[in-house]
Write a structure and sequence with these properties.
The structure is a homodimer of 153-residue chains. Chain A is mainly α. Helix content of chain A is 61%, strand content 3%. Chain A has a single domain, classed as Winged helix-like DNA-binding domain superfamily/Winged helix DNA-binding domain (Arc Repressor Mutant, subunit A). In chain A, helix 2 crosses helix 5 and helix 3 packs across helix 4. Chains A and B meet through helix 1, helix 2, helix 5 and helix 6 of A and helix 1, helix 2, helix 5 and helix 6 of B. The first copy, chain A, binds a DNA duplex (30 and 30 nucleotides) through helix 4.
DNA sequence: TGCGCCATGTCAGAAGTCTGACATAGAGTC
DNA sequence: GACTCTATGTCAGACTTCTGACATGGCGCA
């Protein structure tokens, strides 16, 4: 194949990208049989844990733009998985909720995704896992630090 | 905004996604003024560290499909940043290299991206950084473990 | 030699996401 | 009240990436 002279794999940034990419690939693999994408699943999981989130809040939680989430929400609403009754409108904000069908759909997906996360953490002690959480939170905070706040997504 | 009853932020998977997303956003922010996307930069950086990589190898290194990398490579070749001389062909494999212009283009981008990574790691000791590398490598290995190998990307 | 098998390069179309833009609603200020 | 500022929902178009497909080249094995 190719010469492995320089080792790119010592960069935390690259490893972070690699890990996130591997996680995403495995999630896609288990979600595909259910006819679901990762963002699709993320949206449902967010709504299950925090009912009534708005389009923009869902977008932030799934790390996409509110425009992308809007496209997805309209499809989910059309499929009867999510409902956004106009009566619930508060100002311009239109809260979304899972339908019964959405909850059923999420149940299988949630189990599948959880098994992927379990596999990812296999071989790590409880201390290592909380260490990983702490380090990731530190990186997130540092990256967001000198931020003007008005950024998409 | 919304009620913060259930805390989604305790999942390592979610934090991983959040950190990768934040890193990508910051990289996009510093690369945009240079007229470069993240994948664009990744491709150049890979070629700088390992000259002669093929299209498929670059794709794996940048975590995209070989089809996506092919689209990008054709654009980069057209822009004179990368060259793939047909004389270098080995079987079906066509090794790619940076042109002088590509090296210049990468120089600025590389510095910008490195500063983002430094900022991300701010406040972490050397031990914590190597701990982060170890944990991320562990997650990657576990995720790839029960893998048939033939997956895109 | 001939065969199956796998990886590669490439094209074409589909799907997902993003950028840009507009109108509107709420909060704060004068 | 009038104003500005910010956040939101939404539409339209462009871009990036993916999936599917095909032909080709190297490799191992009968």
């Amino acid at each position: 194949m190719a010469q492995d002279g320089v080792d790119l794999e010592t960069s935390v940034g690259y490893l972070l990208k690699e890990a996130a990419s591997a996680l995403r690939a495995e999630m896609e693999a288990v979600l595909r049989p259910l006819g679901m994408t990762v963002t699709h699943y993320s949206c449902l999981e967010l709504l299950a844990q925090r009912p009534g989130l708005s389009n923009s809040e869902l977008a932030r939680g799934a790390f996409v733009t509110r425009q992308s989430m809007n496209v997805l929400l309209q499809a989910l609403e059309r499929d009867g998985v999510v409902s956004r009754p106009v009566e619930g409108r508060v100002g311009k904000v239109l809260p979304a909720r899972l339908t019964e069908r959405g909850r059923r759909s999420l149940a299988q997906a949630s189990a599948a995704v959880r098994s992927v996360e379990v596999r990812m953490l296999f071989g790590m002690t409880e201390e290592e896992q909380s260490g990983a959480r702490r380090l990731l939170r530190s990186m997130i905070a540092s990256l967001r630090e000198a931020d003007d706040g008005g950024r998409q997504p």
